[in-house]
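Troubleshooting: if your tokenizer reports a length mismatch, compare your output against this known-good record of 236 residues.
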Amino acid sequence: MMRYNLNIVKVSKLFYGSYPYKITYKRLYSFPKQLTVLDLSFNPLKQGNDKWWFDYPKTTDDEQLRARCHKFLKTLDDVKFNNGSHTHVYFETKKSYDEAASRYVELQEERSEPLVENLAELYEQSEKRIHIRKSLYFKKYRYKIQFRANKNFTENVGYSLFEMYKDNPNYRMNSNMIKFDKLYVARHKNRRYIHSPYNLYALYCLEEIDMNMATFVASECVSTITKAVLLSDLDK
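Known-good structure output:
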């Protein structure tokens, strides 16, 4: 039997909030019925004139193999498909994942598996949003607060947070939060925009009490609070 060296990625989050496992395949279905010369020359990845924007089946046998794989995958319970340049298939249960992983290996590009087997259970039991990690944020901070960059935040709350926590070792700001420094604003006063609703604004907190203090100050602007859960703690 031919052996395939697949990249297996260990993940710490659930796909779509529900699926611990994923297999990435060559595109399995929904192929154009006819390819024109123009189609083949549309080549944004510059991979050669014989390639389209995905790995197009080169023979009828290849296309039929992919069709059989797709048909098989649809018989499995609790799966989700995302079909683009590749076909990503997500699995809620290890049973379905193992069954899929053992078949049509020649069409598989990559597999993703949870860092811990009970990943879904850990997320379900946690009262807070968690992020399973090998270390704390910046090897020190247990919590991460992300803020909504609304008008109140960019014009008022962000400046208050910066002044309150800029010299406090229990907190660390990301680069966008540091732009609330009035000295930074003065140096860049000619810029049309310093802050944007598309920027990520985050504050890292040492412990829960620090997180609670910061969220009290910025309650209406808080988007998400994430707690770092260490792999070493799960093994205890």
